[in-house]
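Sample log: Major Facilitator Superfamily protein.
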Amino acid sequence: MFRRPFFRAYGFWHWGEGLQTVLFTWYMTFHAGLSASEIGFYQALVLSPFLVFTIAGGMLTDRIGAGVSYVGSTTLFGLLLFGYGVLDHAMGFVPVLFFVYCLAAGVVSAVSNPAIDTFIPEAGPGTAYENGVLAATAHNLAKLSGTITGLLLPMLAAFGGFVVNGVLMLLSVAFLRKHLRQNSEQLQVHAAGEGPPWSRVWQHYRACPENFDILLSSAMLGLLIVPTGYILWPLTLRERFPEYGDLIALVNIASWIGAISATAMAGRYSRRILKPGLVSLVVWGGYAVMLTTLTLVGSFAALCLVVMVLGSVKVGKAMVYGKYIHNCPSRARGVLISVEQTAFWGLATLGTFAMGASVDLIGLDTTILTTALLVLVFVAVLTLRGRLLRLSLA
């Protein structure tokens, strides 16, 4: 299945995204030697276009077609990476140029992200749910590959890192173009639909309430679960096992191994899973229970094991995301995907800030237990609403 051009395009895109995350942090911290406040500024700068322009990118995708939108924006992304690598090699770190790079990279990413996801339901011969699980597995494998590739940055240096990152983006474009040639119907530019975009979004959630509950679950993931990887795992490592601080990459790798194992298993038994929404609720509830064990880990190896199990939570979204996209009408698929991504990443940004402040205010263990409790409350509310329980493959 992963020989299909779309999954290769999807994999190279997220491989590039995974490397970009490591490259961006390494470049600022070690290559440019920026201060903590400068690093925070540029991190926020590169994320801000993604949060502000994602919905605009989705609207653009609906208007001009996902193929044109993705190929154009991702080609620009690849050329931008090449160009900045050359400029840095020739001139060194120049704050104005880096400012422009961060802003431009965020904008093109905001267009590319919703565009490539619109292809998932028809990416293979299976159902939208099965294709969604396969896409999640490709995503997790690619992110792990990006993280591992990031370990080569001291050898590649900044110039080599940006060039390799650009090559990955352009390979994604090449395979997406091949997918489009094999599936010419996906080249169609769909009509924008009736009424303004926000009106169409509201009408869709009223007509398809199960998609609204999937949106709520994405909000929960962004607000409570995604920030644990940015705050709770690293701080647990720092407070309990500071002597292993240089091995923090192993903790992240353990998380991706858990995610890949879970989504691969879900893909293998996908036809036997008749109630994917129920499975997601169980996974999220189990994550909350497992999260509490972070307060008990007694060794670095145990921490990696717990994080690997926690990483499997990524299968929860994979179970329902394909159905969400499938339920979206083609004329508004781009903007509806961008709404979901904005809920996910927008609340992840806020949740990360709040979780970090919480650790300073009430302590690490209390924050862990509070987060676990809030996840359980969210899961209980979604269960009582009942729509995810009734979610089926049909």
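Observation: Residues 153-182 form the longest helix (30 residues).
Observation: The chain has two domains: 1-184, 204-394.
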